[in-house]
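quick one before i forget lol
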Amino acid sequence: MASKDMRSENDNLATWRKHKEKLTYKLLEKSILELEKIQANINQKNVSEMMDKLASEEEKKYKANIKASAISKNKVLKAIIAEAQAKQKIKNSDSSSYTLDAENQYDIFKLKAIIAKKDAKLKEYENIFQRANLTKEKEYLIESPTNTYKNLLEDLIRMSITEGFVYIDKTSQHLMYEDDGRIVIPKDILKTLKY
């Protein structure tokens, strides 16, 4: 039995696919233009529905009107729709508002992350200071023979000042929180710590 020559069928299939692709792009452009005319939201679902409505008999025959799920799998069609969405957003935005480009959005995200980390560290330091519960009655802990508590406290104060969470007020001589000015350690205890 002789094998069948498939070259002619493959050529026909390639031609059919090229024609379908051309019709799909034309129909997509028509659909986007129609959505812009009626000022509808441009997205994959709306474009797909508009393609169904605008498709001619030939486009339906070649199945050029495609579904939203097929659009989502095709990078080129998605890019065309995304470009149309961006143009629509620019056109719809008034002159008083502005849009941020990706680089600025990334910078804002980085700054928010830095702030969140600082807030977490500040909360951690506040908890440590609260657990220490430093008052005049606790001075005996600082003057204890082991000095470990004193050394830990001095390190904690030094780190907190370096991080910018606390500062030593020049007038009252208290160690205070940077953000709200609450007293962290009274000046009497700071003196025993030699600050």
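fyi The radius of gyration is 35 Å.
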